[in-house]
Amino acid sequence: MSRPDLLVRGARHNDAEFDLLVGGGTVLELAPAGARFPEGAPEGVEVLDAGGKLLLPSLIDAHVHLREPGFEYKEDIASGLDAAVHGGFGAVMCMANTEPVNDNATVTELMLDRAAKAWPSGPRLHPVGALTKGLQGKELAPMAELARVGCVAVSNDGLPVASTEIMRRAMEYAATFGLRVIDHCEDPFLAPGAGVNEGRVSAALGLKGQPAAAEAIQVARDIQLAAWLDLPIHLAHISCRESVELIAAAKAKGVPVTAETCPHYLVFTEDAVEGYSTAAKVSPPLRTRDDVMALRQALREGIIDILVTDHAPHADHEKEVPFEEAPNGITGLDTALSLAWKLAADSILSVNDLIRAMAWNPAEIFGLAVNRFQPGDPADFTLFDPDELWTVTPEALRSKGKNTPTMGTALPGRVTAHVIGGRRVV
Predict the structure, then answer these.
(1) Distance between the two ends of the chain, CA-based, in angstroms?
(2) DSSP characters over 101-139
(3) What domains can be seen in the chain, in order of their start residue?
(4) How many CA atoms lie within 13 A of 315 on its CB side?
(5) The pTM is what?
(6) pLDDT digit string, tens, across residues 275-287
(7) Which of 102, 199, 337, 405 could, after both became Cys, cross-link 88 (CB 3.0–4.6 A)?
């Protein structure tokens, strides 16, 4: 075994206390507490006393909007990565809806350069390139170029591709370069971007709502394409029971489909929009209690593969307008782990469910490095205090975006230390 340069002492992992030995930026050994150095660490080895806090792998967020270039007043790469690393994320995948759109090497390289300068030791930024030029849904983006400079997937994100022919060609072209297509499933003709579920709440508020069918129709189309072409598709921010049932049936048949949801779809219902709350206006919209229950079960059973934030920061003045004029989006990097931990504390999900959905599965789906605490794994991990309560306030959020329905509420759990590549960054 290589000589360690960092010893994390007395961390809780799998209901027991362990010491983690790190050397050269990788995991050397996870040993029972006190087993390796009962008399203390050798000279020159940095010691990080965990004090019984929970040892977690660094999380991977496969769906964030960092807004740079073009919308730095909402968020920039430096502030977004700040929110990410303090929220437990060691890597994030940022979407292409910037200005200019990330549909060419120049924009991708700018993103990577800004990340390297702001956070040279991580968290790691993995750009998601545009599926079509300008996100217009008409002409395929130069995926060979995007893959060459570091994009790990392609997506049209909030502007779903209406043309099934374009989507077919995109899936075929992306597969040539080892890129997975991420699709925002929304029928472009059924109340696109309404921001509220069509149902009891939308009717009471007099708002045009979006039915769950708008999502499920596109989910069904993408599944049919994946089955026909035998090519993978990843379905973004699933929000309703109908979609879950389609994905479950597809997986049972062996269709290469993966899917994600977000903490806000597991915690909030359409009721959060009452009072015309623009903080809860998101696309797809928050749904019913039945949908929440279906999504929770799907995550436990692996029908939904991963948990993402869909971090979508907006400036205060953009949300402080009449509901129908406000942009869709909830900021999530600061709060995601705490919201997920609350579900674990309430025995709705297990800790292993969270680790699988927020670290291991995103890495497997998108070909990223991940820490399973095996020798040779990247030394990317956090110490997490599940007992610390904190209140969501504008000052407590490191993101520039303060648009969250959790504002003013107390949440459990804070990251107390974060190590990436063997270097402490928090």
Answers:
(1) 27
(2) -S-SHHHHHHHHHHHHHH-TT--EEEEEEESBGGG-SSS
(3) 6-54+377-391+411-424 (2.30.40.10), 58-366 (3.20.20.140)
(4) 8
(5) 0.97
(6) 999 999 999 999 9
(7) 337
